[in-house]
Amino acid sequence: MRKTFILLLATLFVLTACEKTPQTAAMTDDGTLTVLAGSELKDIEPLLPQITAATGIKLKLKYAGTLDAVEQIQSGAEYDFAWLASNKYALLTPAAKARIKASERTMISPVVLGLKTNKAKALGWADPNKAPSWRDIADAAGAGKLHFAMSSPASSNTGFAAILGLASAVAGKGDALELKDIDFKTLAAFAKAQSLTAGSSGWLAEVYEKEAANLDGIVNYASVLHGMNSRLKEPLTLIYPKDGVITADYPFMLLKESKRAAYDKLVAYLKGAEFQQAMNKASYRLPVNSTVKPIIASQDYFELAFPAKLEVVDGLLDAYLNTLRRPADSTFVVDVSGSMQGPRIEQLRQSLAGLAGGDSSLSGRYAKLRDRERIALLRFSDHVEDQQLWSLSSDKASNAKLLQAFSDYASQLQTTGGTAIYTAAKEAYQAALLRQSKDPDRVYSLLLMTDGINNDGITLDEFKQWFSTLQPQQKHIRIFAVLFGEAKSEELEVLTQATGGRVFDAKKAGLQAAFKDIRGYQ
Questions:
Q1: I want to staple 153 with a disulfide (CB 3.0 to 4.6 A). Which of 32, 160, 265, 468 is the partner?
Q2: The whole model's pTM is what?
């Protein structure tokens, strides 16, 4: 059965793969109205001409992650409308709530667990009438019977919906949930099984399809899982926990009262049969229009409530990142070549300081370095200059000193020499492999920042040749790269794809925004 109390989220993380968007004028020169949209709504973009033809209104979608979108709404960024997976977090934030003049849900997709059918059968969960509870799922995860992919709860709605669903279902308190009611032991067992993370639901699905052999399943929107099943060799059985799920209802929100007439016209069309049918066909999301029959019928489910207090939501996120999830080992591979002199090296210093706690913004809070995280910083020019290591614990006072040391070190970065990108990447990877061999129960990743073209050290082909000699189990340390200055995007794409990572473009939104994005994937 389905309750009408629909959840929504705005976090995490942000985060779906989550692209930062600078503030923009509400209306473009040609009269197009702007929409601050969740990154997963890129699949709606092909339907924009249809919307314009029906309403006479041209829309331009500017994409952002959940937390970034909430931050932009509450700061007064000039958009006419917002269209996110959920607005529940935004409505708990007074400044953002005040800007939302109207809100209408437009489509539905519950967040569920997709398991390979053989795994679902082995656990006794394949029959919808024998669906497990959230606690059953956590118990299987804690016992090592389950390994899944899930987006970061601080960057993406799907990851947050999963941990909130678990916390809410186990506590049985609905919207009255308090921090004292949360069973953190059960959440820790669940987190233990998260073997692949990402900052967006879309990118998570892409990587799962490449690495499905190493995983039992994936937490994602039911609509995304249906789309994946048309491509996967081992289809997924969708598991709807019997004690309830969190649902995205994609509210279309009015931010500028002066655009009320256009908003009413758009909402009427978005909820009408024509758009609902086209949307369902394009994305597998369920229609909110009861006259439209979905192409894949939804399984019945119970709707869990969203907490009524912001401190509960934030407390759950903080606990997951700092206490519950597997600790990270993050290597920052930073270019200090001569071309970085001036504003570029200053941006790098400020961005690293922001990760150490210098960025007090909403998105900065969840992108910062975390308790129990081990941080390496490798400087390179035409050779590897040095590599420093800091290991955070769960002690706040000790961590504050270490983070200050990290920030002080970053503030003193100086520029010199040429650019040996692939030599630095290789040495950083080798050092991470050595630490991994001694401490395997961490999530390892490299963040490469360069503004130049490789002109010293080994070539990309030589790096690829070395990488090909590694054992299969050694190839799972992801390299994420920040495209900055004159760096060649094509070469960075090859480098990151070889390791299952991706490239983030800092040329438009800036280096600090790119760093925040990447943190959702680490």
A1: 160
A2: 0.87
